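User: Fold this; tokens only.

Assistant: Input:
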Amino acid sequence: MPDTLTAPRPAPAAGEEPALYVCVWDHVAHAVAWLDAANGRGPHETALRVMKIAEEAGEALIALATVTGGTPQAESRLAAHVAARATRLRALRAAA
């Protein structure tokens, strides 16, 4: 398995919610390894990946502003979501 930013997580115990243990960076590491194997990681490929990030982020922000009623509402909702997620993650880590 390629290097990841987080240590592998143990499988959840019986009765525990598996979604709490899914680490997005594990999935990212697998995708990077797959892309590297298929396309390499030269300057051209790296530039394409950076452009894709910008494209996707722009689409997500436009969609968020559309469904929330405007950019101030989107910013507020996104900030609230990030704060709530950080609070949940801190609580999960404290409970572990």
